[in-house]
From TrEMBL:
Its cofactor is Fe cation. Keywords: 2Fe-2S, Dioxygenase, Iron, Iron-sulfur, Metal-binding, Oxidoreductase. It comes from Rhodococcus wratislaviensis (Tsukamurella wratislaviensis). One of its GO terms (molecular function) is monooxygenase activity. Gene3D superfamilies: Naphthalene 1,2-dioxygenase Alpha Subunit, Chain A, domain 1 (3.90.380.10), Rieske [2Fe-2S] iron-sulphur domain (2.102.10.10). This is Phenylpropionate dioxygenase and related ring-hydroxylating dioxygenases, large terminal subunit. The keyword Oxidoreductase applies. InterPro entries: Rieske_2Fe-2S, Rieske_2Fe-2S_sf, Ring_hydroxy_dOase_asu_C_dom, Rng_hydr_dOase-A.
Length: 386
């Protein structure tokens, strides 16, 4: 007798566990993340156009280090540890600024060129190293940090042997978009800043990434976004990687707060990229959103286990910014999304230390890719237990 031709129903997709609450609150875990993630990988530090002139600098916290990104007199952008080689004072204490010729330590006035070399110190002619020779201006210069420029941003890496930028950063983007040229068509490096908003978020950096990775919450908290991108309303989209492009609603004219028309599409994009939204997460701390007439570029700066600064740039074609056209309707859409997302993260952070979340929560099927992020993190931290 043959078996009845009845197929067993497919098992319902399982819930899978998240990280336990301590991963979002424990300062020791945060230190391990600083060491194994932010100090080990390429970290997006600054917009290069903010540092256009020689002597312009920006101070950035990368993991446990303070890093200075500086424009040299030769036009090159360089990065250094922001630490004086004499007795270790922090060299620049302002977040950003402009020096005329050199960087001078405010403690005993050791002075460094914009290329990091020691150029002067009080009584320098009398200074000798341990062999009695003149002091070596490079050896006692600022400690250099690896820097690469891509998409109009300076990315730095504190690792002694930085991983391949092509593989870790560029490759991760082109691979996810499928077409290696897809991101190049937006010519992000040529766009200009229309608006920057900085958010000081009282939440662990992973809550922000995890939130960005799922759209299960979109129908609940993003009424304006789901109006423009109807496919986000079903909660299934993975917002971190909309590689196929989420189509605008039929009635929607542009990626604006009310769906009204935006600006002309960026000149390089393909017909296929028009009227679509793409989103990419570049681990560990960058989110890029691509829409036809602008690009939204987020960088996260994790400051402590329960605080993350997020800097968000809205970038437009140079003729849009030069003409003084009003960008506020397109800025307002993602600004509102950011506020809605960061409110949710801030509501979640305080309860991470509750005993109700000691063993974590669960991921529904639409969030399962967050589990991959957790596995990736645990591998980087060298641990295995959740
Ligand atoms: Fe900088 Fe002394 S610590 S000059
Ligand atoms: Fe969201």
């Amino acid at each position: 007798m043959s078996a009845p031709d009845v197929q067993a129903p497919a098992p319902a997709p399982a819930l899978i566990p998240t990280l336990g609450g301590r991963y979002y609150t424990d300062p020791d875990i945060f230190v391990s993340e600083q060491e194994n993630v932010f100090e080990a990988m390429w970290f997006c530090a600054a917009r290069t156009a903010d540092l256009a002139d020689a002597g312009a600098f920006k101070k950035v916290t990368v993991g446990r280090e303070s890093v200075l990104v500086v424009r040299g007199r030769d036009g090159a952008l360089r990065a250094f540890l922001n630490i004086c080689r004499h007795r270790g004072a922090m060299l620049c204490t302002e977040d950003e600024g402009q020096v005329r010729r050199n960087l001078q330590c405010p403690y005993h006035a050791w002075t460094y060129g914009l290329d990091g070399k020691l150029v002067a110190a009080p009584n320098m002619a009398a200074l000798r190293d341990e062999t009695g020779a003149d002091i070596d201006r490079v050896r006692y210069g600022l400690v250099p940090v690896a820097l690469r420029e891509w998409l109009g941003y300076a990315w730095v890496c504190l690792a002694d042997e930085p991983p391949s930028f092509e593989d870790e950063v560029i490759g991760s983007v082109t691979e996810r978009l499928g077409d290696p040229a897809a991101i190049d068509r937006y010519e992000i490096g040529t766009l200009e800043l229309g608006r920057r908003i900085t958010y000081d978020v009282a939440a662990n950096w992973k809550l922000i990434i995890e939130n960005f990775m799922e759209c299960y919450h979109c129908a609940t908290i993003h009424p304006e976004l789901t109006e423009v991108l109807p496919e986000f309303a079903d909660g299934l989209a993975a917002q971190y990687f909309v590689g196929h492009g989420a189509a605008f609603g039929d009635e929607v004219e542009g990626f604006t707060i009310d769906g009204s028309g935006g600006f002309e599409a960026l000149s390089g994009i393909s017909d296929d990229q028009d009227r679509k939204y793409y989103a990419i997460t570049v681990r560990p701390q960058v989110f890029v959103n691509l829409v036809p007439d602008h690009v939204i570029f987020h960088r996260m700066y994790p400051m402590s286990a329960d605080r993350t600064i997020v800097e968000c740039d809205w970038l437009y074609a140079p003729d849009v910014t030069a003409s003084g056209r009003d960008v506020s309707r397109s800025v307002e859409l993602f600004h509102r999304v950011n506020e809605q997302d960061f409110d949710a993260c801030e509501r979640t952070q305080p309860t991470m230390s509750s005993k109700a979340y000691r063993d974590g929560g669960v991921l529904v099927p639409a969030e399962h890719h967050i589990g991959e992020f957790h596995d990736w993190l645990l591998t980087r931290l060298g641990g295995d237990a959740k």
